[in-house]
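Checklist before submission:
- one chain only
- standard amino acids only
- sequence pasted in full

Submission:
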Amino acid sequence: MTFTQWRDRFHGWRGHRPFAGGVLLVLGGAEILVTMKAPLPVILHVGMQGLAGYLLPTLMVLCGLLILFNPTQRLFYSIIAIMLSLGTWLTSNIGGFVIGLLMGAVGSCLAFGWVPDQEPRQSRRRQREQKQTERTERTERTVQTVHKGGHLPETGRPA
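Returned file contents:
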């Protein structure tokens, strides 16, 4: 498989799931886990350094991966993930020095708000080109109708 084929397949796969939300959630959980290993003078808030300090960010990473690989259940995973992200404020260095907490919260909100059956967005240039071709086709049909001796399609309609 060439790089171009792989890239096209990846773009297709990425387009059918809340990719940005899942990645932000995974990165937020990973950042919190990394700050848990910070040296003691750097740690601002020790919190419950037991199981909860490592469990919540690990579950955040797990929810992010589940959002990426099972997007049909994204609503449930994103609700759990926002609660886990907010819980890290108490258990893990003020939510990974607030950076991991914010990344997790934004990621779970993006995953929650993702709509799977939405039409892909078109660039403004493509929209202009499409409107221009529609106008051109409409003008050509009108000209052909007038040349045939028919009535204009817009006649008789109020402006």
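Reviewer check: The chain has two domains: 3-113, 123-159.
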